[in-house]
Amino acid sequence: MKENNGQEEAFIENRALVSACLENISDPFLLVLLASKRAQELSYGAQAMVSPEGHKDSVIALQEIALKKVSPDVLKETLIEGFRNSRMFSLFLLLNILFFSIC
């Protein structure tokens, strides 16, 4: 780990970043979903919980997960809520209901 230009918060080197994230979220597929959701939030203007230092939103999201600045449970809930509000999810659910009611 290295320090950010005299700041107190640690910043994990990029090559060790995914390994550090997998210590908090053991499923790599879930990690990808949660990190992409957080990166999307950051791109829409959410406040970063680590110093961005010119990094891309995806790297900042992984840093936040690795340093336990964001809760995986909160990210899961926002991800699930997004799926619930999604038109595609609603359409998928409707098609499944129609399919199973016909059979």
Automatic annotation (TrEMBL):
InterPro entries: DNA-dir_RNA_pol_omega (IPR003716), Pol_omega/Rpo6/RPB6 (IPR006110), RPB6/omega-like_sf (IPR036161). Transmembrane segments: none annotated. GO terms for molecular function: DNA binding; DNA-directed RNA polymerase activity. The keyword Cell inner membrane does not apply. Its EC number is 2.7.7.6. It catalyses: RNA(n) + a ribonucleoside 5'-triphosphate = RNA(n+1) + diphosphate. GO terms for biological process: DNA-templated transcription. It is an enzyme of class 2 (transferase). GO terms for cellular component: DNA-directed RNA polymerase complex. It holds the Pfam family RNA_pol_Rpb6. The keyword Lyase does not apply. Keywords: DNA-directed RNA polymerase, Nucleotidyltransferase, Transcription, Transferase. The RNAP catalytic core consists of 2 alpha, 1 beta, 1 beta' and 1 omega subunit. When a sigma factor is associated with the core the holoenzyme is formed, which can initiate transcription. Promotes RNA polymerase assembly. Latches the N- and C-terminal regions of the beta' subunit thereby facilitating its interaction with the beta and alpha subunits. Belongs to the RNA polymerase subunit omega family. This is DNA-directed RNA polymerase subunit omega. The gene is rpoZ.
